[in-house]
Amino acid sequence: MIEVIYKSLSTWLTDLANSLISLLKILVQSSFRLRLPARQKAVCSVLGNGPSLNTSLEKDLEFILQTEIVCVNNFAHSPYFLQLKPQDYVIADPNYFVFTEQTTDRDDIRQTLGVFLASVDWPMYLYVPRFAKGSYIMNTIEARNPNIKPVYFNYTVIKGFRWFRFRLYKAGLGIGQSQTVIVSALFLMLSRQFDTIYLFGADQSWHEQIRIDEQNQLLMQQMHFYDKPKDVAYVPVYADKHRTKTHSMADQFLSLHKAFRGYEVLREYADYLGVRLLNASSKSYIDALERVQLKKSNAAS
């Protein structure tokens, strides 16, 4: 009995402390003037860049085209980008917003920017964290392609009491911890209150691509649906910007824990909003979301 009381009190005090800290973070980091655009359809599809998306795009393309489409990070590298013409695009990788014309080691970012400038001839919302405002990427896009409308969101991580977090998420003052861009995109789309959100291409199978070499360096193969496996090498996952030491296995699995915990919070937030959040990925290690297989009879509103 005493142990139960102790755990309950400890949890309450932790939530109280996290709520107060989150309030301070909001006052310092968040803008109260940012708003998300209204949804364009009742159903949306969030497309992750996992290898399984190839299967989904072959099998479920007709269904996806009926929904409001959300792509992330380097999806523009795929020929499907011009076919789908997504209404929404989310970029959360901080490396995008320190990129400049002189940057030489991020050809992937340069390629995405090139596609945005040369090929996006339809209206598209580009969701980026508030701190991206004024970056080279955003200044270039705003100056050279009026079809792309920036939507800045508060990337303030909110923790604390459940009721407290959910109200602030809904108000757009912050989001839950987002180890991946998919989690960020789902938080944003939930706050836009679609009736149903389908998730595709969320393999989340990083542990299958982890290796340790003879020097105990942690290596990883970062596979995306638009990559050719033979072209993707195992590379060190460095823990510091000077690239002197890789992450430990313990650090890497802690990061994976945070990623999967993010999906549990998303499920709770979806239930709070009354939004159906469904995982339609053909391969996925996410156990927090209801799995579905689409049939020809499925139709988007």
From TrEMBL:
Domain of life of the source: Bacteria
Record-given protein name: DUF115 domain-containing protein
